[in-house]
């Protein structure tokens, strides 16, 4: 497929790119630049043109989002000088049962075990209050 060929994109992706391009042009961006930005946005949101089912496994948008979030979380921990599981290992070694020392994921697991309603949207402090 030659570079710049848009035939592998779905109709929905093409409509989205066209809408984004029009939006950029309304804001005064040059037409060629608007088109480039629009397709870059579509590529970032959907991973590029749709591929045939034989080109490898497909991931859902939710799975891609979760992978990016996990990768960003690990990168932040790395920058802070922590290994990804350092917090969990510390909690297990200390033998402490204090809820405040648990990670949000560990609190979420406890909330799941107690079947607390609305837990998936709760922040750490909200989980702490609900579990207390």
TrEMBL record:
Signal peptide: none
A Pfam match: Rho_N
Span list, region Disordered: 1-132
Biased composition (Polar residues): 83-100
One GO-annotated biological process of the protein: DNA-templated transcription termination
Compositional bias ranges of the Basic and acidic residues kind: 15-36, 64-73, 102-132
InterPro entries xref list: Rho-like_N (IPR011112)
Domain Rho termination factor-like N-terminal positions: 99-129
This protein's name: Plasmid stabilization system protein
């Amino acid at each position: 497929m030659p570079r710049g060929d848009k035939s592998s994109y779905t109709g929905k992706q093409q409509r989205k790119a066209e809408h984004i391009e029009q939006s950029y042009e309304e804001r005064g961006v040059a037409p060629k630049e608007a088109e480039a930005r629009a397709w870059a946005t579509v590529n970032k949101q959907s991973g590029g043109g749709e591929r045939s089912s034989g080109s490898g496994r497909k991931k859902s948008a939710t799975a891609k989002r979760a992978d990016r979030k996990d990768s960003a979380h690990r990168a932040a921990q790395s920058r802070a000088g922590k290994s990804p599981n350092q917090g969990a290992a510390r909690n297990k070694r200390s033998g402490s049962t204090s809820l405040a020392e648990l990670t949000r994921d560990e609190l979420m697991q406890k909330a799941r075990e107690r079947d607390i309603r609305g837990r998936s949207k709760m922040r750490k402090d909200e989980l702490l209050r609900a579990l207390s």
